[in-house]
Structure formats: C-alpha cells, structure tokens
Design brief:
One of its GO terms (cellular component) is cytoplasm. It comes from Leptobacterium flavescens. Belongs to the 5'-AMP-activated protein kinase beta subunit family. InterPro entries: AMPK1_CBM, CRP1_MDG1_kinase, Ig-like_fold, Ig_E-set. This is Glycoside hydrolase. The structure is a single chain. The protein is built from no helices and nine strands. By secondary structure, it is mainly β. It has a single domain, classed as Immunoglobulins (Immunoglobulin-like), CATH 2.60.40. Strands 3, 6, 7, 8 and 9 form a five-stranded antiparallel sheet that branches. The chain has a four-stranded antiparallel sheet with strand order 1-2-5-4, with no helix packed on it. A hairpin with a 2-residue loop joins β6 and β7. It is globular.
C-alpha cells in the first residue's frame, strides 16, 4: 500500500493518491473523515497490474482518519502517517496528514 501527496501551489489542497495492491480483489474503497465514511464516493480503480488506485483533493492543514475496504473487509494502510484509536469502531484507524 502507498500514499502519495502532491501539494498544489495554486489551491489550498493536497492531491492524495491511495494505491492498494490487491490483485485478487473485486472492489477496493477508501473511506474516511474526508468523505463522511461513504463507500460510494471513493471507489478505487483497478489497474492492469492488479493495484487499485484513486486520487482525491484534500484540504491542507488537516489530519484525516481513513481505512480501506477490500471486498468487504476493513484494512489499515501500514504506510499511514500515524494511527489513532477510534472508540466508535473499536479499533485503530490509519491517519493521513496533509
């Protein structure tokens, strides 16, 4: 898994690209604070090499909790900036800081 950040000079946003290697998966979604944990607004696109990838504009100066859903299973990104306990979910969520 990988997270790439590209800060824009012209706008107060960061383009964050999430890449998930999951060749056997049918569907990968990234959910988090930045999309109200919606499974429909952030479906990652499957590439020919088996990775799933998606880029999202996130406002700078914030930290966002997130997780991947790979074929219905919640997974954290080990390359996240940090992890934070979430009482509602009863588990740790990955955090990306932009």
């Amino acid at each position: 898994m990988a997270i790439q950040k590209k800060y824009l000079k012209s706008k107060p946003v960061c383009k964050v690209t999430f890449t998930v290697p999951a060749a056997e998966a049918e569907r990968v979604v990234v959910v988090g604070d930045f999309n109200d944990w919606s499974q429909e607004s952030s479906i990652l696109k499957k590439l020919k090499n088996g990775n799933f990838k998606g880029t999202f504009d996130l406002p700078k100066g914030n930290a966002y909790e997130f997780r991947y859903i790979i074929d219905g299973n919640y997974v954290n990104d080990e390359t996240a900036d940090r992890f934070q306990w979430n009482d509602y979910a009863g588990t740790e969520n990955a955090v990306v800081e932009v």
